[in-house]
């Protein structure tokens, strides 16, 4: 981590140069960090930043903004802050703000070749921005990283919805960047921030399944993303010779807290199961469904055609892409895949609305889902960390 901060991928040669410029201009630095829905190791990154400040004797004014996107501020805010910042919490406390997509004060940013977006006013009030993010595959945004932290994480709900409506586009797929309207829209926002005079020094991490930092790069947003993409493919992407009859998908960590997040395990790996095959999601989901907008659409639209018609008639709402993609996966007129779920926190009715059958155990689920399949030719694939890992046919 410290090495990455000493050898930036431009435009500054190192973090110290970025900080020194801010201090010389008497400008504060806004540090943008992810909430607990992302498995970013914020504490380690900030410890490295603090060591740079201590080594150089620089003392910039710092403010911290938790980029929640549309997740909202947790009820146990102090506990969440301590979990995000770890031992550095006392250093951060007192100069920390949480973004709220509906309640925070917003300001407008003009985006060339796109509609303006509204984002947290603190971002536009600071010239020097230091976003900290981590890279994992994302099933419709292509890939996560600090580009999302400094944009999607601090947007108003309506601006997030406008960007995420691109998730219904066929180009919005896992690890897709070129031709992906969601990813390209985010980078246009980053470019608009830079064009407005913002100086951005991004810290980009790659973590292992235990949450430890495997790799880090710092500097220009586009450069740190490009540097990380080959490693993301090496760390998270696996190929199989042929699609499986049954995929067993284990989702853990922050993505397992509710069905809205755990569904990423399905989206990441849906192309590794054959048409008419079966998928079993295994996730705790202590918060149940989570954001339930997509269940409302599923309740109103029992098949893919009706789901698409509802969205076309009333316009896109956040979460619609999950419902439409689920219907495309399970509709007999589409791929006809049967879905099962094993989850302590998800009730049977909610599972049924999502097109899934709830089972009390993995063993019982596998038996039920494969009862009509020939055991001599049955292909079963178990995917650990399915919320981040993606398995694709060769």
**Looking at CATH, which topology of the largest domain would you report?**
Rossmann fold
Overall shape: it is: globular
CATH classification class of the largest domain: Alpha Beta
Helix content: 25-40%
How many domains make up the coordinates?
Answer: 2
How far apart the termini lie comes to 34 Å
Count of discrete alpha- or pi-helical segments spanning 4 or more residues: 16
What's the total count of β strands?
18
Radius of gyration: 21 Å
Which parts are unreliable, with pLDDT below 50 for 5 consecutive residues or more? Answer: none
Structural class: alpha/beta
Describe this structure as you would to a colleague.
It is a single chain. The protein has 394 residues and is of the alpha/beta class. The protein folds into two domains: 2-235, Rossmann fold (3-Layer(aba) Sandwich), CATH 3.40.50; 241-393, LarA, C-terminal domain (2-enoyl-CoA Hydratase, Chain A, domain 1, Alpha-Beta Complex), CATH 3.90.226.30. The protein contains 16 helices and 18 strands. The chain has helices at 2-6, 15-24, 42-56, 77-85, 89-92, 121-125, 146-149, 157-164, 181-195, 221-236, 259-269, 293-300, 304-314, 320-330, 348-353, 362-369; strands at 29-34, 62-67, 96-98, 106-109, 117-120, 128-134, 137-138, 142-143, 199-200, 202-207, 213-219, 237-240, 244-250, 273-282, 338-342, 356-358, 380-383, 390-393. Strands 1, 2, 3, 6, 9, 10 and 11 form a seven-stranded mixed beta sheet that branches. The relative contact order is 0.12. The model has no long low-confidence stretch (mean pLDDT 94).
